[in-house]
Automatic annotation (TrEMBL), chain A:
<dbReference type="GO" id="GO:0005886">
    <property type="term" value="C:plasma membrane"/>
</dbReference>
<dbReference type="InterPro" id="IPR035906">
    <property type="entry name" value="MetI-like_sf"/>
</dbReference>
<feature type="transmembrane region" description="Helical">
    <location>
        <begin position="109"/>
        <end position="131"/>
    </location>
</feature>
<feature type="domain" description="ABC transmembrane type-1">
    <location>
        <begin position="107"/>
        <end position="312"/>
    </location>
</feature>
<dbReference type="GO" id="GO:0055085">
    <property type="term" value="P:transmembrane transport"/>
</dbReference>
<feature type="transmembrane region" description="Helical">
    <location>
        <begin position="247"/>
        <end position="269"/>
    </location>
</feature>
<feature type="transmembrane region" description="Helical">
    <location>
        <begin position="143"/>
        <end position="169"/>
    </location>
</feature>
<keyword id="KW-0812">Transmembrane</keyword>
<keyword id="KW-1003">Cell membrane</keyword>
From TrEMBL, chain B:
<feature type="domain" description="Solute-binding protein family 5">
    <location>
        <begin position="83"/>
        <end position="434"/>
    </location>
</feature>
<dbReference type="GO" id="GO:0042597">
    <property type="term" value="C:periplasmic space"/>
</dbReference>
<dbReference type="InterPro" id="IPR039424">
    <property type="entry name" value="SBP_5"/>
</dbReference>
<protein>
    <submittedName>
        <fullName>Peptide/nickel transport system substrate-binding protein</fullName>
    </submittedName>
</protein>
<keyword id="KW-0813">Transport</keyword>
<keyword id="KW-0732">Signal</keyword>
<dbReference type="InterPro" id="IPR030678">
    <property type="entry name" value="Peptide/Ni-bd"/>
</dbReference>
<dbReference type="Pfam" id="PF00496">
    <property type="entry name" value="SBP_bac_5"/>
</dbReference>
<comment type="similarity">
    <text>Belongs to the bacterial solute-binding protein 5 family.</text>
</comment>
Amino acid sequence: MSAAPGSLTRAALGAALRVAGTVLPVMLGVVTAVFFLLRLVPGDPAVMILGDRATPQALAELRAELGLDAPLWRQYVDFVGGVLTRGDTGDSLVTGVPTAELVLSRAPVSLGIVALALVLVLAIAVPLALAAANRPGGWADQLVRIVPTITLGMPLFWIGLLLIIVFAVNLGWFPVGGVGSPGSAPLEPLRSLVLPALAVALGMAPPLIRSLRAQLLEVIEAEFVTTLRAARIPEHQIRWRHVLRGAALPTLNLLSVNLAYLIGGTLVVEKVFGINGLGTLLFQSISSRDFPVVQAVALYCAILVVLVTLAARVLSALIDPRLRGAR
Amino acid sequence: MTSTSRRAIVALALAATLGLAGCAPAAQGDGAEPTPTAGGTLTYGRLASANDLDLHTQITANNAFAIDKIFESLVSFDEHGKIIDWLAKNHEISADGLTYTFTLRDGLKYSDGTDVKAADVKFSLDRNLAKEGPLALTAPISEIATDDAAGTVVITLSEAYTPFLSELTSFSAGVVPKDFGGKTEEAFFKAPVGTGPFAIGEWDPAGDLNLVKNEHYWQDGKPLLDGLDYVFVADDNQLLQRLNAGQIDAIEQVPAANAESVEKGDATQLLKSDSWAIEQIFFNTQKPEFADVHVRRAVAQALDLPGITQATTFGTARAASSLIPPAIEYSAADAFDAEPVLSHDVDAAKQELAKSAFKDGFEATMLIPSGNSARAQIAQVVQESLAKIGIDVQIESIDLASFRERFKAFDYDFMINSGQSDAPDPNGLVTFQADPEGFSNSFWTHYTNPEVTKLMHAGRTTADGPEREQIYTDIQRILASDVPYIPVYYSPNLHGTTAKVHGLESLPNGSVRFQDAWVEAK
């Protein structure tokens, strides 16, 4: 690469600043939307905590204790104020545990699934797209075209269930669910994450394979490839080093666009695999109307999406010199 | 599938289940019972975490069935709902039913090794009364006197209240150290100390709970287990798969649809017991249509309860004929089964409806909580059945939190919900479901019948015996005839274990006792 290091840093910084400029409004928007949407949904946290047998007095006392009797605007101002001034997202209504603590303790396992899914989706998509693009219309291409059409129609939880039945219950290669027990082998948690990550990866691979295949075919037709061939550069070298790199950028963009799916998918498979991560925490908290926890999970997930989008843009800028300094 | 073939399959499943149920108690061991071994840890899968262990403010199963492992009360109940002495080695009730004298067992200790004193019992019961929690004692207690030297607790009532002993069996009547052993309330309930077979090890209020053996437990040599892990698994299918794979040892709840596969599985076994819960259809009697007793009776007669029960519980439950389930004293289920108050008869239903102000039928919406497949199925059968008598039913399925909000605001026509007793005495259920003076307004049906109210009061003060039995039979008969709710079936407790697990005792309130539980070496 011929670009000067200075322009590189500037490009990355520029991209970072542009994204950062959107972070705060996005955060505020997410927090506000989640806060008010939650309150629109009927359901009283006090009833969910105390159950049907609780007397009206007991419910009223609990509501007062939890601060749920304050006017809505007051609750909103308190929450946003807490986030902005102290970075404090409040305590869980149900367990009393600080929400940040809950989110942080659940995040590693969810992020583990996201990271592993990312690795797996690339491991699935890249070779398949290469094989398909290698001989358009060939058997590999047909396979790559048909199979994803089928899996694309399968809901994520269904893919998860199939994986459990085949690889966990019947073959016994992986645990059925959970992330290992306190006494289990150190690698056990990692092993437990394979199937959930695979489920997410399988759900997200099809569009990626198609996009990458299309890009590869386009790049193969490009003039510079013809030039490289004319220069007698070995074909495999052309494909791996030049064509793939040329096709990588749109795929990376597609991948970053799909991040919401990836994170959303992770939250869904957690339930199927009985993993107590952010998804389960979110699901549990919505069911029990544990407002602060839902707000905190939404906020942190939004931050995560923004950060990863930022990373993808920086990476794009590094790969494609044309993007440096652009806008 | 046609309804006939469905019914045939269901009948077969029922027959198979009943056949096996006959030998259920022996199913634990299959002939040669292996010798119990002490030690090891049992992992118990549950659908919800224990998030609060304060015995006086909690009621929901996720907390209750953890609290009852840590705290114990003076009296308890066995798997058939019979009241037994527990922390008290004996109890005496005066002839006038006003004075209850309990004598504590000798050498009782808390899990931290300190002695249990009679004063602790008074402290605990006083806090129970002061907190006014969902399971607070409702008996008219006028005095609690203690004698630490003699180890006695004497409780005096201002008037006779027969359900008192039954109320004392609740986990919320459990004993905690006086003044929380010097800790603050908050600190105490984060690491509670009780007399139960287990004590808290590690606890994540939004996740797993690890319980460890109480070395000072009063039952000699028990518990057999060194540890009991409550594993939180948010999905019932996942829960079942983990049991099948042997990844966990036992699960709290087996969906009725899977009961047979767990029972017949080579590596699994089903633990089934009668419960104090009843699945019911509740009417909002503030709605003009359902305020009309003829309409309610017509609905009851239009429904084939045994059919519904078989189809939706896969033969695991018994169709209901009275409010009080058979696992509670004075249940009229057997009597009403033999001679039903109202039975399935579509023609009679039509005639009954013709007597109402809505003879041409009407529209009504049935409210159900989402995510409960049995209730969704019941709702569909109800819809189909009532169409035959001219009632057009819409089904509205909403999430549990919204569902509770709606029926508590009387914002529903009729709904499917469950009633559950917390104690082996019929008074609790009757009070909660038929007391217009209570805060639940007869379980949010707003049903009022002065005759029932009068009998209910009499039931509380009449000593146990034939006279009291008659009172509750009369109440059940009036309710079955007035139909403020239709008891559909008595829900059984269905727990699943692997074949290596032994000695679990299923209690009618849905909890499980682990004192005698042990797991064969894996």
